[in-house]
């Protein structure tokens, strides 16, 4: 009976953690394939999810977002909020935006979790027109 109860609770908590995106995630540079930064995703009091750069793993040419068009213009990359306003819908997080600090462009964003990986999709208009990245959990 104890084994059955333990198995039930282990399964229950693994299902709960499966759909959560809060925590620290390592981003990978699309061009080099090397780790680029650590993004910390957190939930604000408005019930939405946000992500900020908590560590830079590659020294950027410019430590500020010179090409950003909004309140992030010329702000330091370290501590910059690059994911904004995601809402949880089932096992997916949607309705928010993600900003590429390298280009300053902001895209619509969807995030889903598969184990220790996040599938992050940034797009313009339709989800089919965009690009995806895989972020890895930081332990």
UniProtKB/TrEMBL annotation:
Keyword Isomerase in record: no
Q: What are the residue boundaries of the DUF2147 domain, all occurrences included?
A: 23-136
Instruction: Give the range the annotation lists for the signal sequence.
Output: 1-19
Does the UniProt entry include the keyword Signal?
Answer: yes
Residue ranges that the Swiss-Prot or TrEMBL entry lists as coiled coil:
none
Bilayer-spanning residue ranges = none
User: Where on the tree of life does the source sit, at the highest rank?
Assistant: Bacteria
Q: Which InterPro entries match?
A: DUF2147
Q: Which UniProt keywords apply?
A: Signal
In Swiss-Prot or TrEMBL terms, this protein is called: DUF2147 domain-containing protein
Q: Which organism is it from?
A: Chryseobacterium manosquense
What are the top taxonomic ranks of the organism?
Bacteria, Pseudomonadati, Bacteroidota, Flavobacteriia, Flavobacteriales
């Amino acid at each position: 009976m104890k084994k059955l109860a333990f198995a039930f609770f282990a399964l229950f908590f693994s299902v709960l953690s499966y759909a959560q995106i809060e925590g620290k995630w390592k981003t990978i540079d699309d061009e080099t394939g090397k780790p680029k930064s650590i993004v910390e995703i957190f939930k604000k009091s408005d019930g939405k999810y946000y992500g900020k750069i908590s560590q830079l793993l590659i020294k950027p040419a410019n430590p500020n977002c010179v090409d950003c068009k909004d309140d992030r213009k010329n702000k330091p990359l370290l501590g910059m909020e690059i994911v904004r306003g995601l809402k949880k819908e089932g096992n997916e997080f949607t309705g928010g935006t993600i900003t590429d600090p390298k280009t300053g462009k902001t895209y619509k964003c969807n995030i889903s979790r598969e184990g220790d990986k996040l599938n992050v999709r940034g797009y313009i208009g339709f989800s089919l027109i965009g690009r995806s990245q895989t972020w890895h959990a930081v332990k």
